[in-house]
From TrEMBL:
InterPro entries: Put_HupE_UreJ. The lineage of its organism: Bacteria, Pseudomonadati, Pseudomonadota, Betaproteobacteria, Burkholderiales. Keywords: Membrane, Transmembrane, Transmembrane helix. This is HupE/UreJ family protein. The chain crosses the membrane at residues 148-175, 187-210, 216-232, 244-261, 273-301, 313-331.
Length: 338
């Protein structure tokens, strides 16, 4: 009966086209947009403009321009798979690149930012993130000062809009409820998960290790599927809690790899690597705390209102959603990997 319910949830998710990221191989709702500019001679150079298809299946309408205007020539458009459109070409400006700004518009909910990596001639690389509230950046390295605090917000976005990560955190919380464990045990499990993903995130960003992208994405999906299985199977009293804790730590390592891989396009500024890495990681923790707080508050309100039926229904719906999405991601990612 449980297996039937499990498969039913999976079918419903496909039929209803629920916005939980199943349209994306990486299960992230937002599309990534990036502009790479390199000046090779005075006022001229190369540009690459990348846009990733969002969860709505559309290419983000984000566009950019130089101010004062520069001429774009030899522009070629190509697709990488069916998920990313790339424009490559040359720019010709009437003055040095550092006398210009880059401005962007066309932001949407699913594409709320444009990553900019610019290298003016004989100058340090500029690293910036343009948003609806900050849609322009100076290409003068002395005038440009991108706030590192922006990476705190980016970290929150990565956990909150990364649906595979959201469902894993949700599953951990539901499993804690199912086993009627103490708050101390809940804190311990999330501490292990945090240590795990912080470790691999740092090592990947620093270039100490390398991991296969598709394999990691498949293993992340399997980690969510494991949680769903733990939630539906009949619980037995374990002889030791250590295997469960070690698995959580291992899954933390996997999810940290996922965070790092999703930041490949954006990168971290070399001149403030440690501070931005710490802020990004802090943003992930704040997002994770927000998810758990929302879950805990919801279940606390249901229990305080003495609605045991609704409490069970909420837990079952969440469990089936986790299982259905994880099953889809696992099949999809393993298929794309092999």
């Amino acid at each position: 009966m449980k297996i039937f319910a499990f498969l039913l949830a999976f079918i419903l998710i496909l039929k209803l086209d629920l916005p939980i990221g199943v349209q994306s191989a990486h299960a992230h709702e937002m599309g990534t947009s990036a502009l790479i500019v390199q000046e090779t001679a005075s006022g001229t150079g190369l540009f690459v403009f990348k846009r990733t298809v969002g969860a709505d299946g559309k290419v983000p309408p984000i566009d950019f321009k130089f101010e004062p205007a520069c001429e774009l020539r030899n522009v070629n458009i190509e697709w990488e798979g069916d998920t990313e459109v790339i424009q490559r070409g040359n720019f010709f400006c009437s003055a040095l690149l550092n006398a210009h700004h880059v401005a962007a518009d066309g932001f949407t909910r699913l594409a709320p930012e444009l990553i900019v990596l610019a290298t003016p001639l004989n100058a340090n690389r500029i690293h910036a993130v343009l948003t609806p509230n900050s849609g322009s950046i100076s290409l003068n390295t002395e005038a440009n000062n991108t706030p590192a605090l922006q990476y705190l917000i980016v970290g929150i976005e990565h956990i909150v809009f990364g649906w595979d990560h959201v469902l894993f955190v949700t599953g951990l919380y539901l499993l804690w409820r199912k086993r009627e464990q103490s708050v101390k045990q809940l804190l311990g499990q999330f501490t292990l998960f945090t240590v795990g993903h912080s470790l691999t995130l740092a090592m990947l960003v620093l270039g100490w290790i390398a991991v296969p992208t598709r394999a990691i994405e498949a293993w992340i999906a399997l980690s969510v599927l494991w949680l769903a299985w733990e939630l539906i199977r009949k619980e037995t009293v374990p002889t030791s809690n250590w295997p469960h804790l070690l698995l959580i730590a291992a899954f933390g390592l996997l999810h940290g790899s996922g965070f790092a891989l999703s930041m490949e396009e954006r990168g971290f500024p070399d001149q403030a690597l440690l501070s931005t890495l710490l802020l990004f990681n802090l943003g992930i923790e704040l997002g994770q705390l927000w998810i758990v707080t929302l879950l805990a508050s919801t279940f606390a309100l249901l229990e305080k209102a003495h609605f045991p039926t609704f409490t069970r229904l909420a837990q079952n719906v969440l469990t089936l959603s986790i299982g259905g999405a994880a099953l889809y991601w696992t099949i999809e990612r393993i298929h794309s990997y092999v």
